[in-house]
């Protein structure tokens, strides 16, 4: 790839995000958009009304730098209620412009130039850019689909070898986008042991913490030795179906949160004043809300998996998130990028090629990602189009 004029060396190679590219393709071709991850319906009415009420009540100026006090309290209550983790809302909770800002601010504030950051590869696309902006180096440990089928796994020795004297951070995403993997207790125990042994700080991205199907999400901060060395990041976008509001947060020990806040102040300073009380309302919703989010997403996962299998894909059933990864080889294709570029024309559907999330694109060349946070009608329409478009003889 040639150099992009004017762009600093830190950002060379980072073009337009795949999500923007694929959503533009969906709009241009009038395809069913199962590419970019966002739900096609609004979240709970109490949360929406709380934002409207806040706007009308004049909550429209800069909120305090760390976030409004009531949201910080609600975030601390949420961490206690679901994960039995204690945080002081004054010094250990920071509200950010989505999880994206919390991730970037963590990299910028915690890394020196040349430090290494361990990630599980593939990664959500902002990780590479955030690490690069901080002048740090991303070291990937590859997640591979096991031959038998269902979940993605890493080689524990590859993880052990990834730690070096230059390792500053480990950036963990569980539930994991794009694979849908939910890291197990045994895997998290090993990760925690290695972080403690090498005196490495963990930054965890848990934006899908409430979209987990077969077993519970486990926060790395709850593992022995980790509470003092973990910055836990999440956001309201996925849980409350308001990805456009961009209210996220970081929680952790005061010295780490103070560092992250220092960077955050000069990225956005603050954001989303009227959405902050609304997310506090959401975090305090009853268990019935959280249970119905999980059960409705699980039903959608099962529906999309069945539809993709019927259309001829090999499906890797996700354990969490709202994404399903599928292999295109049974359909006679071997290049996910070509496949996704042609899919609107072949079948009127948009998906995302998983290889863009990998450091070495060969590890994901035949995988594509579909988002199932859509109405059943939309998923059924996509399934019908895929079955007809990819198997014309049977149609
Ligand atoms: N991390 C992961 C794994 C994601 O999938 C996303 C997309 N929602 C984000 C972070 C960004 O979250 P936010 O929109 O809150 O910035
Ligand atoms: N998190 C969403 C995804 O993985 C998209 C977020 C974005 O467009 N940056 O599809």
Description:
The protein has 395 residues and is α/β, with parallel strands linked by helices. It folds into 2 domains: 9-43 and 288-394, Aspartate Aminotransferase, domain 1 (Alpha-Beta Complex); 45-286, Aspartate Aminotransferase, domain 2 (3-Layer(aba) Sandwich), CATH 3.40.640. The chain has 13 helices and 13 strands. The strands form 3 sheets. It has a 7-stranded mixed sheet, sandwiched between helices. Strand 9 (314-316) and strand 10 form a beta hairpin. 49% of the residues are buried. It binds 4'-deoxy-4'-aminopyridoxal-5'-phosphate and glutamine. The site of glutamine (GLN) has 5 residues, from loops. Residues 17, 19, 36-37, 177 line the site of glutamine.
What topology emerges from the helices and strands here?
Layout: H1 18-29, E1 32-33, H2 45-56, H3 69-83, E2 93-97, H4 98-110, E3 116-121, H5 125-133, E4 137-142, H6 156-162, E5 167-173, H7 185-197, E6 201-205, E7 230-235, H8 236-239, E8 247-251, H9 254-267, H10 275-283, H11 287-311, E9 314-316, E10 323-327, H12 336-347, E11 349-350, E12 352-353, E13 367-371, H13 376-390
Parallel strand pairs: 1-11, 3-4, 3-5, 5-6, 6-7
Antiparallel strand pairs: 2-8, 7-8, 9-10, 10-13, 12-13
Helix pairs in contact: 2-10, 3-10, 4-5, 4-9, 11-13
Bound molecules: 4'-deoxy-4'-aminopyridoxal-5'-phosphate and glutamine (GLN).
Shape: globular
Q: In CATH terms, what is the fold-level topology of the largest domain? A: Aspartate Aminotransferase, domain 2
Instruction: Strand order, main sheet: write it out.
Output: 2-8-7-6-5-3-4
Q: List each distinct ligand once.
A: 4'-deoxy-4'-aminopyridoxal-5'-phosphate, glutamine
Helix content: 40-55%
The largest sheet is: 7 strands, mixed
Q: Low-confidence parts lasting 5 or more residues at pLDDT below 50?
A: none
* N-to-C CA distance: 40 Å
Radius of gyration: 21 Å
Overall number of strands: 13
Question: Averaging pLDDT over every residue, what do you get?
Answer: 96
Beta-sheet strand percentage?
Answer: 5-15%
Note the run of SSEs as H and E: HEHHEHEHEHEHEEHEHHHEEHEEEH
Structural class: alpha/beta
Question: Briefly, what CATH class of the largest domain?
Answer: Alpha Beta
Domains, number: 2
């Amino acid at each position: 790839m040639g150099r992009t004029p004017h762009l600093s060396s830190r950002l060379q190679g980072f073009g337009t995000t795949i999500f923007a590219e694929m959503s533009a393709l969906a709009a241009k071709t009038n395809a069913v958009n199962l590419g970019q991850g966002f739900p096609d319906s609004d979240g709970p009415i109490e949360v929406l009304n709380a934002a409207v009420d806040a706007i009308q009540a004049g909550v429209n100026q800069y909120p305090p730098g760390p976030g409004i006090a009531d949201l910080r309290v609600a975030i601390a209550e949420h961490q206690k209620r679901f994960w039995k983790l204690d945080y002081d809302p004054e010094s250990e909770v920071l509200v950010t412009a989505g999880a994206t800002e919390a991730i970037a601010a963590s990299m910028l504030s915690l890394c020196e130039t040349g430090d290494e950051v361990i990630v599980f590869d593939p990664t959500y696309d902002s990780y590479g850019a955030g690490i690069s902006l901080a002048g740090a180096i991303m070291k990937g440990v590859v997640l591979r689909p096991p031959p038998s089928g269902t979940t993605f796994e890493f080689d524990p020795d590859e993880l052990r070898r990834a730690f070096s004297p230059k390792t500053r951070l480990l950036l963990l995403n569980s539930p994991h986008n794009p694979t849908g993997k939910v890291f197990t207790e045994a895997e998290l125990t090993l990760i925690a042991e290695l972080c403690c042994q090498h005196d490495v700080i963990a930054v965890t991205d848990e934006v899908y913490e409430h979209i987990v199907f077969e077993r519970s999400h486990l926060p790395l901060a709850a593992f022995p030795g980790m509470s003092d060395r973990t910055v836990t990041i999440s956001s309201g976008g996925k849980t409350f179906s308001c990805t456009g509001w961009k209210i996220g947060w970081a929680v952790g020990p005061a010295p780490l949160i103070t560092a992250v806040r220092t960077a955050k102040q000069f990225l956005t300073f603050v954001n989303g004043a009227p959405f902050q009380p609304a997310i506090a309302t959401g975090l305090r919703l009853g268990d019935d809300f959280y249970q119905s989010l999980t059960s409705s997403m699980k039903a959608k996962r099962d529906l999309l998996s069945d539809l993709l299998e019927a259309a001829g894909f090999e499906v890797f059933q996700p354990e969490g998130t709202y994404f399903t990864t599928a292999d295109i080889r049974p359909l006679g294709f071997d290049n996910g990028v070509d496949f996704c570029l042609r899919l609107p024309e072949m079948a009127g559907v948009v998906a995302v090629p998983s290889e863009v999330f990998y450091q070495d694109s060969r590890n994901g060349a035949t995988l594509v990602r579909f988002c199932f946070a859509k109405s059943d009608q939309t998923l059924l329409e996509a399934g019908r189009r895929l079955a007809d478009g990819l198997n014309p003889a049977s149609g």
